[in-house]
Amino acid sequence: MPEAAAILARLDAIMRELAELRTELVASMPVPAADGNGLDSSDDFAPEHLIEISTAVEHFNRPADSIRWMCRKQACGVKVGGRWMSSSPRPLR
Q1: What values do phi and psi take at 87, rounded to 5?
Q2: Other Cβ atoms closer than 10 A to 53
Q3: Residue 90 is part of which domain span?
Q4: Mean predicted confidence (pLDDT) in 63-90
Q5: Domain check: are 25 and 39 in the same one?
Q6: Are 83 and 71 contained in the same domain?
Q7: pLDDT tens digits, one per residue of 16-58
């Protein structure tokens, strides 16, 4: 049976490696936005997070005019090619 000191040394090495892996993982994760939605606020308006107003109407069950107003006044959408696109990570209030 291995000595207790050898086992402790192996455990210490494993724990150091786990701490290093955790540090690397945390460094690679996006910084949560101030509103707590878990995304970096720069990602909120990335093309893959934008949805058409017609899709937002179906998804959020709100009138199109209301969604356009929220996009404009509450900064939960952007204009792309003259059309409003809603950011799916940003909540419609």
Answers
A1: -85, 115
A2: 17
A3: 32-93
A4: 87
A5: no
A6: yes
A7: 998 888 888 777 766 544 444 444 556 777 888 888 999 888 8
Rounded to 5°, the CA angle 26-32-38 comes to: 105
Whether residues 62 and 49 share a domain: the answer is yes
3-state secondary structure the chain: CCCHHHHHHHHHHHHHHHHHHHHHHHHHCCCCCCCCCCCCHHHCCCHHHEEEHHHHHHHHCCCHHHHHHHHHHCCCEEEECCEEEEECCCCCC
Domain count, the chain: 2
Same domain? 23 vs 41? no
Residues 48 and 82 in one domain: yes
